[in-house]
Amino acid sequence: YPRRQAPETQLREFNLTEIEAMLRSYTKVLFVRDPFHRLISTFMQGIGSSPSFSSFVQDVLDSGQRNASTAWKPLVSLCQPCFIHYDFVVVFGFFRQELGHLLQRVGLPVNSLFLEFTDSHVRWTYSWLSEQMFNELSLQQKQQLSHFYQWDLAAFPLSGSFLSD
Question: Which residues form a coiled coil (predicted)?
């Protein structure tokens, strides 16, 4: 779609007719990650100044969804999957299968570099880490996190998430 301004022009700066035309002209891919894994990753990267995972989660909950950082804000509010028809939804932990299929579907060569993801190691590591981190949280924090991410859990295939229990 021909750009009206600089490459960093945000979608909201266009009118509805232009937005609809642009969205029809692109292949839209949404990459989805378990929200609890996103929290763990954000904490491990040192974003925020909390000394423990539990206090970090409390800071997240206290910030609320309106003031949440994009690092942990629910994906439904960031990506608007109810309004934008995504052509592909790729779930973190299944990149090996899904990226090869995606590249083939959009007519790009399936490069063996993309297929070297070690999904089983990533899934095992996050499973172990999630269990450790989840056990640090109080029952109230677990319930509040499930509520905080309820729409992500309903919208995406994240049945293995600790937050969906």
Answer: none
